[in-house]
Amino acid sequence: MNKKMQCPNTYLLSWLALSDLSFGFIAETNIYLLVNGAKGRLYGTYMFHTLHSILILTLLSIERYLAILKPFYYKAKVTKSLVAKLLWIILAFTAVVTAPGYYLLGNSYNMLEVCAKSKLDEIATIGYLAALLVISITVPGIVMCSCYTRIIKHVWFSDEAKNAKNKALLRSRWKLTKIFIAATIVFAVSWSPSFGKLSAKSFRCSERFVLYEAIYILLALLGSTANPIMYSFRCSGFRQAVKELFSKKCCRKHRINSRKSMLNSVTGRRPRCDQVRQSDVILLSVRKA
């Protein structure tokens, strides 16, 4: 395991990237079905990956809040193992929350068929989507805004921040502020339209809703693509860890060999192959004698 991945923030970012990548596959599948005129969508799976990515984003905002405003607590308590446990809890929670969606909407979702269901089934479906909206958008949005607002307030309006005049520090603050504001806006714009199914029945049960579907899937896809890119610009450790993670094996072998040769030059030890050659020379000289 890459040592840089032991950092909780880098570990979280890697999970966010993997979650957004898996969401991208599902979103592209739904776009393909939509473009080809298919009636069904992978809606159950779509909502599972949507909620999973959103909850990881929320956990990331809490992690940043603790790292910046509670540094001593963060260093003492927040570890990679704790983050890993929380990520598995998020995965299990996501599976439980989105499980009813597979029954109410199915994984071959068709809005026109849902609109043709009985009134009781329609009420259950709309009620479930409303609850999912609160869990997926409202609560995470409040948590993210609260964490990022407090961070920005701390880096700009605390007593230490007011007295600081270092240009490098000011640039770092501006960069941090821009990323957090951009992350909040991207979250709201990219994920909120996915719950347009709670709109008026005259709209969501019409053929015009197909165009709306294409728009909200594309927005969510762009948002999931933007998240790892934005955070990787801020976290240099994550960029370096990804480079090392995807480096070729031959490059790794080259680095290992170069380290061994450097170590041998320092310690005075000879490589094993050189020792074998020396023994062969001695053996040949004995035979000749």
UniProtKB/TrEMBL annotation:
Q: Which Pfam families match?
A: 7tm_1 (PF00001)
InterPro entries in UniProt: GPCR_Rhodpsn, GPCR_Rhodpsn_7TM
- Cellular component annotations (GO), alphabetically ordered: membrane
Domain (G-protein coupled receptors family 1 profile): residue spans on this chain: 53-231
Where does it reside? Membrane
Q: Which domain of life is it from?
A: Eukaryota
PROSITE patterns referenced in this protein's UniProt entry, alphabetically = G_PROTEIN_RECEP_F1_2
Fetch the CDD domains from UniProt: 7tm_classA_rhodopsin-like (cd00637)
- Provide the alphabetized UniProt keywords: Membrane, Transmembrane, Transmembrane helix
Transmembrane regions: 12-34, 46-66, 86-105, 125-148, 176-194, 214-233
User: Which GO terms fall under molecular function for this chain's record?
Assistant: G protein-coupled receptor activity
Under which name does UniProt file this protein?
G-protein coupled receptors family 1 profile domain-containing protein
